[in-house]
Amino acid sequence: MDDIKNINQLLDKWGDSFVGYLPKVALAILIVVVFYFIAKGFKILGLRFYSRVFKKQSDVAKLISVIIYFFFLLSGMFIALEVLGLESVLTKLLAGAGIVGIVAGFAFKDIASNAFAGFLLNMQRPFKKGDWVDIDGTFGTIEDIGGITTSIKTISGQEVFVPNQLIYNNTFTNYSTFGKRRVIFKSGVSYGDDLDLVRRASLEEVDKINAVLKNEVIDFYFTEIGSYSYNFELRFWIKFTHQKDYLNAMNEIVMRIKKRFEEEDISLAYAVTTLDFGVKGGVNIFDKPIHFEANKNNV
To answer: What HEC string does the chain produce?
Structure first.
């Protein structure tokens, strides 16, 4: 009988607690529903606003709107837990989430770094699909900028995947940014050539190339007196949309320089060895006749 009486008292106590708890439960549910609609509304407004701010980066606008949505939704859930008097549960949940976050941070460090770098790439847009780039020694065109990796199609036809984190940790070059590229031709002429004639002939030949941008300056510089030549650099700009534009311009200037230098009797320098037969300055063996003397055995 005592056991039955205790059970009845316990049930009555639970019943009273449940009845007294119902208003808090109803208020908590109401708070969650209200914050759900608030979150949904701000998500729509945020998507409209940031779609105008980031016109070319629709993914960025979607990401920001989703962050706003979850911010308001989680805020409503936290307030509802406090209304229900479950602050301790909330504290334990946050502590557990923090521990899980630390463990996950170590486990997925590289993935998270690559994902964040991918987000920055989509915001900054240092290159786009089809651009000619050189990233971490990989030269080719951008195929896709993904969340974790960026794919590049190389000249040889392979697709190379570069981690996004690696892009921001190193320097990279985008050759398509300005729509033009500079061709730098390096060579040298012999010591006996007229340097003024070399400069004039080189500039005239560059000016004949159709791909050269006429509004850009064509530069010619003698850079050094080498061990066997006067070295020079010839620099000019061309319109650049494809690697073939650069290769064709380089091919044409090499052929034109060779042909023109032959016409002007200008010698392209090459490595030679000088034999010094004299005490000062040496003796040119072609300036004097060469005499051969027989030894005593007439050999």
So the answer is: CHHHHHHHHHHHHHHHHHHHHHHHHHHHHHHHHHHHHHHHHHHHHHHHHHHHHCCCCHHHHHHHHHHHHHHHHHHHHHHHHHHCCCHHHHHHHHHHHHHHHHHHHHHCHHHHHHHHHHHHHHHHCCCCCCCEEEECCEEEEEEEECCCEEEEEECCCCEEEEEHHHHHHCCEEECCCCCEEEEEEEEEECCCCCHHHHHHHHHHHHHCCCCECCCCCCEEEEEEECCCCEEEEEEEEEECCCHHHHHHHHHHHHHHHHHHHHHCCCCECCCCCCCCCCCCCCCCCCCCCCCCCCCCCCC
